[in-house]
Amino acid sequence: MDWRYVETLCLRLYEHNGVELQTAFWYTIARMHTTGLSGLNEGLALIAALTRHHWSVMWPLNTHSRLEIITGLFNRLQKTLRAMPPDDRDNLPQLYQTETFLKALSDILARHELKQSSKVALPEAMVKGYITRQENQPVQGEVSSPVTLPAQALRSDAPDVQEYQTLPHSRLVYVVSETKAEPPPSLQKSPPTFLKPFVAGVCAALLAVSVAIPGWQFLTQPSPEEQHFTWGEWL
Q1: Which positions ≥6 away from 99 have C-beta within 8 Å?
Q2: Does residue 189 lie within any of the structural domains?
Q3: Would residue 168 count as lying in a domain?
Q4: CB count, 10 Å around CB of 187?
Q5: According to the model, what pLDDT value does residue 101 have?
Q6: What does the alpha-carbon distance between residue 225 and residue 216 come to, in Å, rounded to a whole number?
Q7: Which parts of the sequence belong to the ImpA N-terminal domain (predicted)?
Q8: Does residue 222 lie within any of the structural domains?
Q9: List of residues 6+ apart from 230 with CB closer than 8 A
Q10: Which of 31, 23, 25, 22 lies closest to 4, judged by CA?
Q11: Contact predicate 135/96, CB 8 Å
């Protein structure tokens, strides 16, 4: 069957007659065949909204006819899931949505006392089984690979390996050796270089003064005649 064409016909019926249960049923089956679980969830969401909000005016108005359509939907759903089991773990998000929509339909049918006769529990159990199976599957990339040591660690002559083998429970102690650094030449205690010319200048000045004072005294000392003359005036 050309499910693409069935889907197109359902959309045309929607445009002319509006959404009704029979058209929603075939649209759900067609979408499930063309796009898989995502299409199935679209159809189930449409049927859930239709039965929840338009139950009193939804066509067909007869409850028995509605029950036949819903039961036929669940039977086809089971057959399709058996033929195309969603075994891929990537389908888990879609399966969760399918479970949610089926639970919503189950609650709606229970309010109208149609849950048991609609056999909604069968597709619910099938979807839950797929979810449980895929949740228990290991995720790709989660299997831990053995640790591969570098080639140096596998050598028996490596010093670190020998040390750890002889002392398996020893702790590593890091000793920081402090060496006294010698002060740089500029910081050593030595007389400043600028004091040397200053000291030499002071010594030269003292020497000059020691020579100049006796000379000055000699030059300024009066002669014997001047001394005799001076003493004669005082007397």
Answers
A1: 124, 127, 128, 131
A2: no
A3: no
A4: 8
A5: 97
A6: 20
A7: 2-72
A8: no
A9: 222
A10: 31
A11: no
Residue 195 maps to a domain: no
Number of domains in the chain: 1
CB proximity list for 87: less than 8 A, separation 6 or greater: 130, 133, 134
Which tokens go with 22? 């029979």
Q: What is the pLDDT along the chain (235 residues), one digit of tens a residue?
A: 899 999 999 999 989 888 799 999 999 999 999 999 999 999 999 999 999 999 999 999 999 999 999 999 999 999 988 887 777 888 899 999 999 999 999 999 999 999 999 999 999 999 999 999 988 887 765 544 444 434 443 444 444 434 434 334 333 333 333 445 555 554 444 445 444 555 455 555 555 555 555 554 554 555 555 444 444 444 4
SS3 226: helix
From the CB of residue 2, how many other CB atoms can be counted at a distance below 10 Å? Answer: 11
- What are the percentages of helix, strand and coil residues in the chain, rounded to 5? 70, 0, 30
98 exposure class (CB count in 10 Å sphere: 0-12, 13-18, 19+):
buried
| Cβ 131 vs Cβ 137: under 8 Å | no
Question: 27, exposed or middle or buried, with CB in 10 Å at 0-12, 13-18, 19+?
Answer: buried
pTM value surpassing 0.70 = no
Integer Cα distance of 114 and 37 in angstroms: 25
